[in-house]
Amino acid sequence: MAEKLVILGAGGHGRAIRELLRELPGFAPVGFVDARPPGPEMLGLKVLGDEAALPGLLAAGVRTAVVALGDAAARAAAAARLQAMGFALPALLHPSAIRAASAAVEEGVVVLPRAVLGAAVRVGRLAIVNTGAILEHDVAVGPLAHIGPGAVLPGGVRVGEGALVGAGACCRPYVTIGARAVIGVGAAVVADVPEGAAMGGVPARPLPS
Length: 209
Ligand SMILES: CC(=O)SCCNC(=O)CCNC(=O)[C@H](O)C(C)(C)COP(=O)(O)OP(=O)(O)OC[C@H]1O[C@@H](n2cnc3c(N)ncnc32)[C@H](O)[C@@H]1OP(=O)(O)O
Description:
By secondary structure, this protein is an alpha/beta fold. The protein folds into two domains: 3-89, Rossmann fold, CATH 3.40.50.20; 91-200, UDP N-Acetylglucosamine Acyltransferase, domain 1. It is built from three helices and 24 strands. The chain has helices at residues 12-23, 54-59, 72-85, and strands at 3-8, 27-33, 41-42, 45-46, 64-67, 92-93, 98-99, 104-105, 110-111, 116-117, 122-123, 128-129, 134-135, 140-141, 146-147, 152-153, 158-159, 164-165, 170-171, 176-177, 182-183, 188-189, 198-200, 205-206. A hairpin with a 4-residue loop joins β23 and β24 (205-206). It starts with a strand and ends with a strand. Acetyl coenzyme *A binds next to β23. Belongs to the transferase hexapeptide repeat family.
């Protein structure tokens, strides 16, 4: 029987996950919860209110959740609240994603359509691999990181905890992107990026703050 699941977050990422779940056998979404519910319904699913609805859902047998929040800190905090209540946070991979047999994803990871996880890739808990991103052999993505749509991480790239690699960004093989760094859309990362740095451009340079 399909596992009943609640989506925490009814914004853009929540809508992407709702569409992922239409294609993913094994899960039956019951609705969204959101701190600011946008209305009674979204994309054919009920919006059940804010997190005050969660105990009732647990009591009704909904024991699985996905955190659909783009902001890494908010995602971590929401995951901690859900797990403290007893919700499981499975990894969700769109069926069109390509995952090598040796690629591993941790709990709460979301992999959107047509992403590629190559040989020996590691994706840490609660990370997002967005639509069409390519993670080549031996790439290691830290917990809570977000690899944006169409980003290309060639062999051996390491992305630190909570870092954001923007849409369409590319990296030189084996570079390391530090924790909480932000790589702007379309950047070409040709050297290691320090923790917390914001980089953009071709080649990527520190962005004005
Ligand atoms: C499904 C989805 O939608 S997933 C979404 C994944 N998210 C992304 O891909 C977004 C990534 N974010 C970006 O690229 C943003 O532009 C950021 C985070 C790098 C910068 O955003 P902000 O902090 O708001 O900076 P802001 O827009 O004010 O720009 C600051 C400066 O950096 C420059 N800049 C911003 N982004 C870039 C970029 N990608 N490349 C080069 N320069 C850039 C701006 O032109 C500006 O320069 P100026 O001061 O000389 O005019």
